[in-house]
Structures are given as structure tokens and as C-alpha cells.
Amino acid sequence: MSFDWKRLSSLDRAIAVAAAVAFIAAFLPWYGATVGPFSASVSGWSAGFTAWAGSLLLVAAGVLLVLRRSGASLAVGGVGPSLLVAAVAALGLLLVIIRWISFPRYHGADVGARYGIYVALIAGIVEVTAAVKQVRDSGEQMPWGQGSTDGQAEPAQPAQPAEPAERAAPVESAADPEQPEAPAAPEE
Length: 188
Fold this sequence. Notes:
mainly alpha
């Protein structure tokens, strides 16, 4: 396996850099309190399961991408490598968002989220956006789109208009001057 940074596309670079930023953000303050001259904060590693697990998943998505670009096979049970990277990154971002909205807040005191979680959120959003764009550009088959046994999705059938319950037969009137008579069939 060999890795060459220059061969990465701009989307690959965005995912890899965002994963590195998410790793660094896990060491920054995510939650804290300030009371008078005293201040205390906790990093992403100490802010609970959703904080450190979300950070690790964002980093793992970047590692998966680098492994894929190095030549490793990453297909897992019908899920292509681009979709795998996007799914891992999206799960990581979801966990970071859950941690952010579940922090306790106290009105009247300086207690709440700190800049580290915002850095992680921005890195996660960039990573997921680039990964989803990469999935769309890759043309990988989605696992829920495989309806036939040969792995190819069946084309959708166009909707047929509903037939009316009763069709009214045309009323023929010999006295109607606007109705032209049908030409007679030629005899042989």
C-alpha cells in the first residue's frame, strides 16, 4: 500500500483535513463554567460518550478514506467504500450534535458549550458534506436500491393512468349534420 497526498481529490482532502481537525478539537474545551475569577472546562474526551465516540467516528471516516486511497479494500456487505466513509462521518456528526444539544445550560451564569465543540461541529459538517458529495459523484449503488438478484436495480415502471369505471359509448345520430359519415370499406 502506498499513499500519495498529491493524488487525492479536493473532496478527499476536505475529508482528511476535517478528520484531523475533529481529532484536535477533541482536546479543546467542549463544556465549561465560569464563576467570578474561577473557571473550569472539560475536553471532548471528558465530555461524555457521545462526545468522544462522535470525535472518534469523524476521525475513523478520514482514516477509512486514506486507507481506501492507499489501495485497501473497504467494501462491507454491499456497501461501497464512499458510502461507508459517508455513513461513519454522518454517525460521528450526529453524536457530536446530540452531545451539543444535551449539555446543561444555566441562565444567569456562564455555563455551557465552549469553542472546542463548535470546532468539532464545523469539521463534522465539512466532512459529511464532502463525503456525501463524493458518494453522489462515485455512482455507487445504494444498498436499499438493489431490488433484483443480479445486483442491478430494476428500472421503475411508469405510472399508468387509471381507467374510468365506465366508458360512455358515443351516441350516433343520423340526423346530426356535424358528424361526417365514415367512408365505406373498399370491396375486393
